[in-house]
Amino acid sequence: MPPVSALQRKLVENRSLAAVTFPQIAIKRSKRKKERCLRLTIRKPEIIAIARRDGKVTVEGLVEYFNVTPQTIRRDLTELADSGELERVHGGAVLPSTTVNIGYNERRMLHQAAKVDIARACAKRIPNDCAVFLNIGTTTEAVATELLHHEGLLVVTNNVNIAIILSACKQIDVVVTGGQLRRSDGGMTGAIAQNSIRQFRFDHAVIGCSALRQNGDLMDFDMQEVSVSKAIIEHSEHVTLVADSSKFERKAPAFVASMHDISTIVTDKKVPADCETFCNVTGTEIVYTTD
Amino acid sequence: MPPVSALQRKLVENRSLAAVTFPQIAIKRSKRKKERCLRLTIRKPEIIAIARRDGKVTVEGLVEYFNVTPQTIRRDLTELADSGELERVHGGAVLPSTTVNIGYNERRMLHQAAKVDIARACAKRIPNDCAVFLNIGTTTEAVATELLHHEGLLVVTNNVNIAIILSACKQIDVVVTGGQLRRSDGGMTGAIAQNSIRQFRFDHAVIGCSALRQNGDLMDFDMQEVSVSKAIIEHSEHVTLVADSSKFERKAPAFVASMHDISTIVTDKKVPADCETFCNVTGTEIVYTTD
DNA sequence: TAAAAAATGTTCGTTTCTGATCGTTTCGCG
DNA sequence: CGCGAAACGATCAGAAACGAACATTTTTTA
C-alpha cells in the first residue's frame, strides 16, 4: 500500500487529468458546486422542532433518532446553520437566541466615546427634581447612566434597559410605559406605551433618532416608534435630541418630527450647514460636546 | 495501509522540519496559535440559561450536570467571562452585576431547588400558542425560564426581569404592562399596570404570593401589588399559584385573593390540612413537584 | 425504462475538543 | 500571618467530530 502522501498526489493527478481530458465534466462539477441547492429532507422540520423543544440537538442523538449516519446529520445541520435557523456547535447545534443580544451589545459599543460625551452634556442640562422622559436608543441609555447621580427625578421610559440601569439608584423614581417588547433593543412600543405617555407632562424629554436629514427632519426605521415619539413630543415642555454625528450621514424611511419640535440638539460634531440654518429659524439650540 | 500513528508522526516530523528549515514559518504558526479562537460548545447556551435561572453556576454542579471534567467547565466559564456573558468567581460564575440587581440575586437563591421544580411543573401545564400572564416573583421568573422553549406564546408581564429573560426567545411575543418600577424586585405596579392588564384576556396566569394562610387566603406585603393581582385574576381563565412551602409559614398583611380564585396550586410540599380541605371545596387542583 | 439528479453512505485527512498533568494562585482556617 | 487544600490556567497527547471527495443507493424525470 502506498503512503498517503502518494495517494493524495495520485488523486490530484487524476483530477487534473479528468479536467484536461473531459473539460465539460469539470465545468459541470464546478457549476453544481456553486449552485446552493438546499436539500429538502424530511428531517429538517423535525430537527428544528426538537431543537426548539430541547434548546439544542446533538449529532449523536439525531443519528439514533433518524437512523442515518452522522455525516447526513452533519449535512442537515450545516444547511440549517447556513440558513440561520440553528447555530452550529461541536457535536450538534443550538438555537441562535444569543445572536440577537450580541448584535445589540456590539451596536452599543459603536461610537461609544461620542455617546458618553453627548450623554454627559445632556445630563448636565437636566436639573434635579423634575419629570424626564427617556426614549429608546443607545445614546439615551448613556444619558440614563449619567443621570444616576441626580436627585428627585421622576424618569419615565419605554426602554427596558434604561429601567434596569436606573433601578440601581434610590434617588430616582422610575416608571415604565409598558408595551410590546422589541427584542432587538429592549424598546417598548404600541398603544399601551402611548396611553401611558399621555398620562404625564414632562419637563424634559430626551429622544434619539436613526437619521437626521439635511432639512432637520428626524427620521426613524420603525413606524411603531414614530407614534411613540410623537406622543412624547406632544407632552414635553423641553425636547432634547441626542444624536452622534453618524446620524447625519444615514437614511431612514419614517418621519418622526421636524426641527420645530426640538428645543435642543446635543451632538459631537458640526451639524451640516443646511441643518444649522434651519435650527436658527426654529430657535433650536445646538450644543456641541467638543466645546 | 500505514497506521494512523505513523501518519501523524510523519506530519509532526514534517512540521518540525519546516520549523527548523524556515524559522519564519514557525513564528507564523505560533502567532496563529495565540489567536483566541472561541470554542463552539453545546454547553455554553445551557450554562447561560442555568445562570439566568439560578443567578449563579458552580464548576462542581456543572461537572455533574454535563458529566465532564472540571477543566472543561473552567474553559467554558473562562470563555463566557471573556465574552462578558458571565462573571467569573472562584468555584463558578455569576450573572454580570450590570444585568441584575445584586440584593435581589441573593433572594433569588433562596429555596432555589424547590422553585425550579415548581417552575418546571407549572411550565409543563401551559400549552403552546396561548396568552399567558406572569406576575412579580422569583418563582414566576423561574417559570419564565422554563417557558423559553414553548412556541407561539404571548406573554404579558409586570416584571422587568421576566421581560429580559423572555426577550432572548424569538418564539415568544412579550408585552410589558408598564407602571411604577419597584427597585427591590423589578416589579411594575400602579394604575398603568392595571390599565394594561385590562386590555387582555389570558388563557393562563401564573402568580405568586408572599404568604398563604391556613384558610387558603393569598396574602402579600405590598398593597400596590394587590390591585394588580386582582386585575390579573379577573382577566384570566386559568389561574395558577406557584408557592414553595416556605410560604405556608409566613404572614403578610394584605389580602390578595381567596382560594376560590385559584384554579391550580403548584408547590413542593404537602399543604396544610386546613388549606387542602379548602381546596377540595373550591375545586382547586393541587400539584406536587415531589410526585 | 433509462438517464439524470438528489440523497445517503464511506473513506480519509484535518480540525477541534477533551481529559490529564503540572506549576501557580486563591481561599479558608487556625 | 502562614499553611494546606482547593481551584485555577497553561500545555499536550489522544479522541472525537468534522468536511471534502468519492461511491452507492434512491428518487425524479424525460
Summary of the model, kept short:
Chain A has 291 residues and is α/β, with parallel strands linked by helices. Chain A contains 12 helices and 15 strands. In chain A, the strands form 4 sheets. Chain A has a 7-stranded parallel β-sheet with strand order 6-5-4-9-12-14-15, with helices on both faces. A 3-stranded antiparallel β-sheet of chain A has the order 1-3-2. A 3-stranded antiparallel β-sheet of chain A has the order 10-11-13, covered by helices on one side.
Q: What does this entry look like structurally?
A:
Two copies of one chain form a homodimer. The first copy, chain A, is α/β, with parallel strands linked by helices. Helix content of chain A is 46%, strand content 20%. Chain A has a seven-stranded parallel beta sheet with strand order 6-5-4-9-12-14-15, with helices on both faces. In chain A, strands 1-3-2 form a three-stranded antiparallel beta sheet. In chain A, strand 7 (179-181) and strand 8 (188-189) form a beta hairpin. The longest helix of chain A has 18 residues, at 4-21. Chain A starts with a helix and ends with a strand. The interface between A and B is large, with 49 and 49 residues. Strand 6 (172-176) of chain A pairs antiparallel with strand 7 (179-181) of chain B. The first copy, chain A, binds a DNA duplex (30 and 30 nucleotides) through helix 1 and helix 5.
